[in-house]
Automatic annotation (TrEMBL):
Residues 1-17 form the signal peptide. The lineage of its organism: Bacteria, Pseudomonadati, Bacteroidota, Sphingobacteriia, Sphingobacteriales. This is DUF481 domain-containing protein. It comes from Sphingobacterium faecale. Keywords: Signal. It comes from the Bacteria. The keyword Signal applies. The keyword Signal applies.
């Protein structure tokens, strides 16, 4: 815990404008109006159930409808059946309803929702609507940008449903509260001279869940580094590690690689 506190303190010393593009959570700010973004997320996670590793692939497309509304479609593939196969898909929408802008800072709040479909057998107590469970999620997110530092937190309610032909186990809790906290800092460049400069961001994210039926919970820590090239291309590298957990889930530790490219003014 001492090292986590030190890392957050290092991220918090700030001076100009920062990015709000986190790796495993969404900020309250939206995709640029009229833009289309294509993202491919990959993860390699240790699977305690099989004493092996699970590889997952997640292609996504995001549309910034206007400055306040964005939508995203995602699909999820993994090798849980000994080959890379389509596991599910989801639709996500976020509406920014509050903005407070200042010269070197701003504050945003947004509401979001997700609906997910999944066909795989249910093998864990934790509710994961991004590749493991069918269901829906609704929540709120708030993001504060102060010079080079972005702080973001969200709270959401998730409800798991049956996975196609696999009924949700009656003894498991189908309702959960999700909560996150993220901090990111622009590390490079020290001074902007062109939008073509490569940005390097360091960030730390905490991702947790509590099953309301039994009070069981977990908390993950996700340190990451992010590269933004020519203000359009994005590369994320992250490592996820469980800090504590009383919720059974065989896949909880591993690495992420995300690649994204944004096309501006496509639909305007």
């Amino acid at each position: 815990m001492k090292y986590i506190v030190i890392f957050i303190c290092l991220l918090s010393g700030s001076y100009v404008a920062a990015q709000e593009l986190f790796v495993v959570t969404e900020p309250a700010s939206n995709a640029p109006a009229g833009s289309l973004s294509v993202r491919v997320g990959q993860s390699l996670m240790k699977n305690d159930l099989e004493d092996d590793y699970m590889y997952a692939l997640s292609p996504e497309i995001t549309w910034g409808i206007n400055k306040n509304l964005m939508v995203r479609a995602s699909s999820y593939l993994d090798n849980s059946v000994d080959r890379l196969d389509l596991a599910g898909a989801s639709a996500y929408a976020k509406y920014r309803f509050y903005s407070l802008d200042d010269l070197q800072s701003h504050f945003r709040m947004a509401a979001f929702g997700r609906y997910s479909w999944n066909k795989n057998p249910i093998q864990q107590d934790a509710i994961d609507l991004m590749g493991k469970n069918s269901g829906f999620e609704v929540g709120l997110v708030a993001t504060q940008l102060i010079k080079k530092v972005a702080l973001s937190t969200n709270l959401s309610y998730a409800r798991a449903l049956d996975n196609k032909d696999n009924h949700f186990p009656e003894l498991q809790g189908a309702h959960a509260l999700n909560y996150t906290f993220s901090v990111g800092r622009l590390m490079y460049p020290k001074r902007y001279v062109s939008y073509k400069q490569t940005n390097i961001n360091a960030m730390l994210e905490l991702v947790g869940q509590t099953i309301t039926k039994n009070g069981r919970s977990y908390m993950d820590i996700v340190p990451a580094v992010q590269f933004i090239i020519n203000s359009q291309a994005r590369i994320d590298l992250a490592y996820q590690k469980q800090l504590y957990g009383s919720v059974y889930r065989p896949v909880k530790d591993g690495v992420f690689l995300k690649l994204e490219y944004t096309f501006f003014n496509v639909t305007r």
